[in-house]
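Quick one, T. Sequence first:
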Amino acid sequence: MVSGGMGGIEHFKISGFPTPEYRRKKQSLIRYRNQLSKAEEKLIDVASQVEIFVNSIEDSHIRRIIRFRFIDGMTWRQVAINMGGGNNEGSVKMAFQRFMERKERC
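Structure tokens:
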């Protein structure tokens, strides 16, 4: 019900449903959900591959560095603090870089 005409004292009843617009939006939503579902599947697959890689690292020191930095999203400084044992930002970063250089040579 809307008001209008004669200073807003007349009332008009509007009926109907915007079917074409509704269908278009519904189809768009279905396509978007399918895209999100496919993207989620890819992300789950990548996350699984990352976990397999990290768990395959034999050196627990390096494994912890990688987990803190790249899975937990810590800064190099936070990684060093969590590693303890006199580690600093530079030492954990260098240990990671050396590990990656060895990996590239293999």
